[in-house]
Amino acid sequence: MRSKVTIVGAGQTGGSMARDLAAKEYADIVLLDVIEGMPQGKALDISQAGPVVGFDSRLTGTNDWKDSAGSDIIIITSGKPRLPGMSRDDLVTANTEIVKSVTEQAAKHSPNAIIMVFVNPLDAMCYVAKKVSGFPRQRVFGQSGVLDASRFRMFIARELDVSMEDVQAYVLGGHGDDMVPLVRHTTVCGIPITELMPPEKIDTLVERTRKGGGEIVGLLKTGSAYYAPAAATIQMVDAVLLDRKRILPCAVYLEGEYGIRDIFMGVPVKLGTRGIEQIIEIKLTTEEQTAFERSASSVREVTRLTGL
């Protein structure tokens, strides 16, 4: 019997997630949206790719939360996108109300589910989902560092002309301009990038990573990234539903780890069938800890705007 995953929001990101997940074949998918016809149409379109791509996953497009009942994972993508000239912080009031409403329904129909959040401002919206659901922190977390690290890895691979698979990196902190790429833990086949490129080039790539989402928003002009965010989220779904025990950077509620409490921050965690099974604490340098705390301050300011 396949697992059941509900994706809330059938926009570009939700649709891409549904397509990527369907091809994996280990889950049936409910694509849920308030817009009549859109989730039904996308589910039908993706399903018709099954004979060509070679998958038998079942997709259901719906406007009714009852169809989501008993989900193993609920992915929340529904929210207003960031548009050119708009900061993540500008989204907080509108998206708080959306995430509150969605989380109430998710908890009602799937009380044992794991909730994954991908709505900006990410860290604050994770906080909303946790507070509203009442779920333990192991079952409410956000996709942030996987995407940020993927961007960093891609920039490094292109600069060095090497395979992206050989580049490993971690990005900690809030999902925004104050994120903290850990340069000293970034390697190519185990070789530190500090031995492969000059400091000024590394600084340039770090800054581009921090502005990675905004760069895409500026180019698209009418929306934000969705292919890479979808792929990053499905990697997290893999880790949970296949109990892979992957060590991935995710936005998790901290209770004293890294000296931070009561907010969501991106840190390395072990992901398995129970959700967050372990929070990995890396010993940070003084400079890294300072940057991490600066990022935490920014996250805390935005989280306060949720009013929860």
Keywords:
10 helices; globular; L-2-Hydroxyisocaproate Dehydrogenase, Chain A, domain 2; Rossmann fold; 308 residues; 41% helix; 14 strands; 2 domains
Give an account of the 3D structure:
This protein has 308 residues and is of the alpha/beta class. The protein has two domains: 3-142, Rossmann fold, CATH 3.40.50.720; 145-304, L-2-Hydroxyisocaproate Dehydrogenase, Chain A, domain 2, CATH 3.90.110.10. It is built from ten helices and 14 strands. It has helices at residues 12-22, 38-47, 50-53, 92-109, 122-133, 145-160, 199-210, 212-220, 227-241, 286-304, and strands at residues 3-8, 27-32, 59-62, 73-76, 114-117, 140-142, 167-168, 171-172, 180-181, 187-188, 191-192, 246-255, 261-272, 275-279. The strands form four sheets. Strands 3-2-1-4-5-6 form a six-stranded parallel sheet, sandwiched between helices. The chain has a three-stranded antiparallel sheet with strand order 7-10-11, with helices on one face. A three-stranded antiparallel sheet has the order 12-13-14. Helix 4 (92-109) links the parallel strand 4 (73-76) and strand 5 (114-117). Helix 4 packs parallel to helix 5. The chain is globular and about 55 Å long. The protein starts with a strand and ends with a helix. The mean pLDDT is 94.
